[in-house]
Amino acid sequence: MLAAISLVNYTFSYPKLDAPTLRDITLEIGEGEFVLLCGPTGSGKTTLLRSMKREIAPVGKAQGTVLIQGEDRDQKRKTVSAMEVGYVAQSPDNQLVMDTVWHELSFGLENMGLPPHVIRRRMAETANFFGIESWADRKVYELSGGQKQILNLAAVMAMQPRILLLDEPTAQLDPIAAKQFLQILKRINEELGTTVVLSEHRMEDVLPLCSSVLFLQQGKIRHYSSPSAFVASLLKEDHPFAKAFPASVHIAKGLGERERFPLSVKDGRLWLKEKGWKKGSAGSVPQPDMYPAGKPVLQAKEVWFRYRKEEDFVLRDASIAFYPREVHAIVGGNGSGKSTLLHLLSGAVKPNRGKIHRRDGVRPGLLPQNPKALFTADTVKEELAEWKQNFQYTDGDIDRVMDEMGISHLAGRHPYDLSGGEMQKTALAKVLLLCPTVLLLDEPTKGVDAMAKEELLHILRRQKEEGRTVVLVTHDLEFAARLCDRCSMLFQNGIACSDQGKAFFEQNAFYTTDCNRMTRGLAPGCVTVEDVTAHDR
Ligand SMILES: Nc1ncnc2c1ncn2[C@@H]1O[C@H](COP(=O)(O)OP(=O)(O)OP(=O)(O)O)[C@@H](O)[C@H]1O
Ligand SMILES: Nc1ncnc2c1ncn2[C@@H]1O[C@H](COP(=O)(O)OP(=O)(O)OP(=O)(O)O)[C@@H](O)[C@H]1O
Predict the structure, then answer these.
(1) What is the CATH number of the domain that holds 486?
(2) Ligand 2 pocket, 177 CB below 6 A?
(3) 264 vs 415: CA distance, rounded Å
(4) Is the same domain home to 362 and 473?
(5) Ligand nearest to the backbone CA of 476
(6) Would you call 16 exposed, middle or buried from its count of C-beta atoms within 10 A (0-12, 13-18, 19+)?
(7) Are residues 228 and 339 in the same domain?
(8) Which atom of ligand 2 is nearest to the CA of 340?
(9) What is the pLDDT of residues 229-239, one digit of tens each?
(10) Domain end residue (candidates: 239, 262, 283)
């Protein structure tokens, strides 16, 4: 059968780098496959994905061949090539260009020069397939992050591509919106037979959906197999990337499984039941926890805020306090006001009403959601050197911070040429260099691989042990559950609930960790993998 995509001895090098980024890749992706492309930060996933579409292929020296539907990528007619392969990037804001949903859906089709009656039909049936008819007249900027990404996908699918490439499309989505997006992808794959290649760090959601896994390491294919064979193989070799596997895999491994690892919450529950886990005692319902004793270092008191007079308030009467030596996670849906709250806490913007109260001597350091916002220099090392010079009070050590963040090897590289995960680590290095007393981190795990995430966990725990406060805005509930002492949820312009970390997750049925879902009713009080394996003993 004709492969949808095949690469033969494909090697690719960026102009200023010594070593090739992709090395001798030979690969066949069959028609209708759903491939999860994964691998450590900087392993070449984005570069490989972009190599599969002529219009966005990386610029540099390429050897070997890329065939799309059996034809050389660069020999195809331009219109065929543009429509045949769809591409969805991480940030919908960078891809959406029109004012309304309807215009966005028609934009690509008009560019292709299709006749109006074809455009109208395509738009109607695409809107119907995606269930977005009711959004037609809405302004794009009014949509939530998750809705924007669904519109982005719909606009790409309106071109009826046979192949769909996606580069971390859920990285900016809240956990519920991310799952919804991935389910739509599954439908596209199943109902239209479209070949899907998806680069994604969120393995727990994708492993149960995909048909095969392509694992890259240092620009080479290390594995290309079924999800279950891939999981068993990496666990066998004790590969550090295995940390990225879903909680169900780690729980089974922790409880002695060696071969058949459940990949979803549902299979994990069945696995536990097979092992004799029964309905647990009801367990004690955790009591809502009171704020710790002592004085907060930073506090929002009855804060109201809106960006413009004519707009609704993003925060209404919101109060929250942060204490010394605590990691406080803030979660909530896209657009619920988490980043806004962090900016208020940092002092970058002022509330319209209410007060941000900072104890004397408290120095906040803000990691913004877009790490590029912090970059001004030509190399990673210069970034840090300039920063240190600008903030003369800092006694942070550049080499030590680079070492701690694992970016010493990137010292001479241009920040804009880094991979997503590398950028995130460089931005965090800049923040840490300021030795802040309160760290305000907006999505620090976005785009970073499982190994870097583990390092980040230790770095943040150390910050806390050294007496600092960490405020962590995140969509990564597993990470929050392992790290935070307290967790608050934003909803409808205010703090909907705030609890001690474990109690927070235990009381939620939807907004909780996979471990908690897997053991619900079987083992009360389990929120992390460690909780479950300890419970068994
Ligand atoms: N335009 C560029 N110029 C020079 N080097 C680049 C460029 N883009 C990427 N690189 C380098 O190529 C390597 C692979 O980058 P790529 O973005 O493909 O990795 P990735 O696996 O997608 O990483 P991540 O998971 O962090 O997004 C990295 O070391 C990166 O720094
Ligand atoms: N600079 C801005 N100007 C106008 N409105 C803004 C601005 N920044 C954010 N908003 C709006 O404020 C609301 C809250 O946005 P915010 O970015 O704080 O949410 P969030 O919870 O951090 O979302 P996400 O999880 O998607 O990052 C949203 O409706 C958003 O559209």
Answers:
(1) 3.40.50.300
(2) no
(3) 37
(4) yes
(5) 2
(6) exposed
(7) no
(8) 18
(9) 999 999 999 99
(10) 239
Report which protein residue has its CA nearest ligand 1's atom 6. Answer: 417
420 lines ligand 1 (CB under 6 A): yes
Mean pLDDT across the stretch 471-496?
93
Position 387 scores a pLDDT of: 84
Ligand 2 center from residue 332 Cα (angstroms): 12
Encoded amino acid at 281, one letter:
S
Regarding whether 233 and 99 lie in a shared domain, the answer is yes
Which element (helix H / strand E) includes 495? strand 494-500
**Which of the listed residues 223, 239, 255 is the one where a domain comes to its end?**
239
417 lines ligand 1 (CB under 6 A): yes
Whether 182 shows a pLDDT value over 60: the answer reads yes
Average pLDDT over residues 370-393: 86
Tell me, yes or no, whether 92 lies in a domain. Answer: yes
pLDDT winner (highest mean) among 47-51, 204-208, 365-369, 491-495: 47-51
pLDDT of 174: 86
pLDDT at 537 over 60: no
Return the pLDDT at 8: 97
Residue 281 confidence (pLDDT): 47
> In this predicted structure, which of 269-273, 315-319, 370-374, 466-470 has the lowest mean pLDDT?
370-374
**501: part of which helix (H) or strand (E)?**
helix 501-506
Tell me which ligand sits closest to the C-alpha of residue 216: 1
Looking at ligand 2, which residue's alpha carbon is closest to its atom 2? 307
Verify that 234 and 321 share a domain, yes or no: no
Q: Which of 350, 356, 339 is nearest to 471 (CA)?
A: 339
Q: Is 86 in the pocket of ligand 2 (CB under 6 A)?
A: no
Quick one: 209 and 344 in the same domain? no
Domain membership flag for residue 497: yes
Whether residue 525 is contained in a domain is answered as yes
Domain with 58 in it = 3-239
Question: What is the atom index within ligand 2 of the atom nearest the CA of 142?
Answer: 31
142 lines ligand 1 (CB under 6 A): no
- Split at pLDDT 50, 70, 90, the class of 283 is very low
SS3 1: coil
Rounded CA separation 132/153 (Å): 12
* Token representation of residue 335: 């657009």
Provide the number of structural domains found in the chain: 2
User: What does the pLDDT average to over 516-537?
Assistant: 84
Classify residue 183: in a domain, yes or no. Answer: yes
223 and 311 assigned to the same domain: no
Ligand 1 centroid–CA 90 distance in Å is 14
The widest CA-to-CA distance across the chain, in whole angstroms, is 70
Ligand 1 pocket member 147 (CB < 6 A): no
Cβ of 456: how many Cβ atoms within 10 Å?
A: 21
Question: Would you state the structure tokens that stand for residue 337, as one six-digit string?
Answer: 């006001």
Q: What is the mean pLDDT of the chain?
A: 90
What is the whole-number distance in angstroms between the Cα of residue 447 and the centre of ligand 1? 12
Query: Does one domain contain both 69 and 184?
Result: yes
Q: Are both 227 and 356 inside the same structural domain?
A: no
3-state DSSP helix/strand/coil percent for the chain, to nearest 5?
40, 20, 35
Question: For residue 16, which atom of ligand 1 is closest to its CA?
Answer: 4
